[in-house]
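Chapter review. Work through the record for ABC transporter substrate-binding protein before attempting the end-of-chapter questions.
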Amino acid sequence: MMFRMMAIVAGLGLALAATAEAQTPRKGGTIRMTAPYGSSFTSLDIHTTQRAQDEIYAKGLHRSLYIWDSAQGKPVLELAKEVLVSGGGLVHTFKLRDDAYFHNGRKMTADDIIWSYNRIMDGTKAYPGARYVRIIEGAAAVEKGQAKEISGLKKIDDFTLEMKLTEKVDPGFYFWNALTSIYPADEAAKESFIQKPIGLGPFKFVEHVPGSRIVLERWDRFYKPGKPYADKLIVSVMGEAAARDVAFRNKEIDTSVLGPAQYVAYQADADLKGTIVEVAEVFTRYMGMNPAFKPFADKRVRQAINYAIDTDLIINKLVKGKAYRATSWLPLTSPLYDKTMKPYAFDPAKAKQLLADAGYPTGFEFEWTTSQNESWGLPIVTAVIPMLDRVGIKAKVKQVETAVLAEVVRTGDYQAFVYSQASGPDPQAALKCFHSSTPPSACNYMNFKNAEFDKLVDEAGQADDAAKRGQLLQKANALLYEEAPVWFFNYNKAVMAVQPWLKGIQLNATELTHQNVEDLWVDETSPAK
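Structure tokens for ABC transporter substrate-binding protein:
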């Protein structure tokens, strides 16, 4: 039986959603969203970037085989009308939509999906989406240069695609995000495509002003009747919390991600507290340690770091409670979260003992790469440094821009880093990031290798019984806790301020800023009519 994921617990309620249900969506107007995670977009080629920042615009411009349904807490078919499962759960035959048009007016066919997945598996490019496409039989051979095309993909006709997987998993959890967007095969190979991308989404590309904004406008031939509602979508780059705050108060933007300080301020403001939307996300924040740096190759050192940091104090004082304490990798919102697991205690004496046992009685020094992010970047690193210093570990800060950090993490060019990474929605896909066969460029950023862990995840991938699969994956998650490849910091509580005129916001636990924008609309009180 296929593994069916439980609906994700979407977190706290939203008055806006209830009122939006009762109203008839208005056509027209402009939706003004923000990209809050840095001072730029990484690329207009969404296959190349795993950053949440870039997927905000991609939700308007592109589409994947599946799409995330926040109400159901699971992926649902998007570019196909139905899927038939055979071959003991390994073969999936998709009946594709015959009404999905690219923004150049050409109809999407099975060839475009096959071309896109083959492109993502180009081993010379190390595209991050390869971690998902690799589940298709023969994809790894293309990645290694042993084959030109993925053998597990077969075109039956223009609108029928057969996909053979290597594991008994629901492909929806592998082909729903922007990293696996479907490109037009004839256009995407051209150099001009990156300057003016063409997608299948509800909005088509108009302009990109680097460091400022991306502007998209309504695609009239979008396959969902009557959608999108808005005429235009503007995604403005606003990495600074203070700039977002001023723009939101001045009604110049419709959405604004709130950091810890703003979260407290908006809750205390009678005019703003009603704009707050929040959800427990499937994201884990952590400090990653490079095992190629000798001290971090020893499990005892990695455990010592977890014992040396007063994580609860940092969450309460710095993150202002806008987070949940992390135990192991799988977050609270994961169907396999282990409630019985206790987080690492704050125990400097134990940390010192472990360091001594590992051969570092006086500690050691390392370089810690961080961005300025207020929730998991420089302020957190600054607070942790004296705690590590107390047990003899000295950290030197290397500060970089968020886009640079993403590249540092993917290439392994660090001793340690601090990051926020998707750890769901599917536990199998999330834990696969620590499998030795997953390259650092995909998501095994710590280059973690453990034979026992691999065995548990591999067995889970072949299990027919969902309960057995769950038990195996929980064991793998417990093993990660013991091995401590990271400092387990927190699971994110995402908070966004939404203007009262923007309707249809979804409580997306996979990333609150990633909205299916065709379902959003603005009423007549919006200043951007």
